[in-house]
Design goal:
This protein has a domain at about 10-55. The protein has about 70 residues and is of the alpha+beta class. The protein is globular, with a radius of gyration of 13 Å. Helices cover about 30% and strands about 20% of the residues.
């Protein structure tokens, strides 16, 4: 039986600012909890968002926001 892959918007994520935990849930739930825009949270899940901070020194800060996918149990 094949496992269905969930869309990114249906997966559970955690939002961090540096090492500080902000919120967790689906991107829509995090948007409601934090006031951040859903589209921006979804952009933060893309590799291009991560690459921007790896390649450009001016963006490397300890306080940047980061979305981390949580494992399903």
């Amino acid at each position: 039986m094949a496992t269905k892959i969930k869309a990114k918007s249906e997966r559970v994520w955690a939002l961090y600012k540096g090492d500080e935990f902000i919120a967790d849930g689906t991107p829509r739930e995090i948007a409601r909890k934090t006031g951040k825009k859903f589209d921006h949270l979804m952009f933060m899940t893309r590799p291009s968002y991560v690459n921007r901070f790896v390649s450009d020194k001016k963006y490397k800060t300890k306080g940047r926001l980061e979305m981390v996918e949580l494992e399903d149990e």
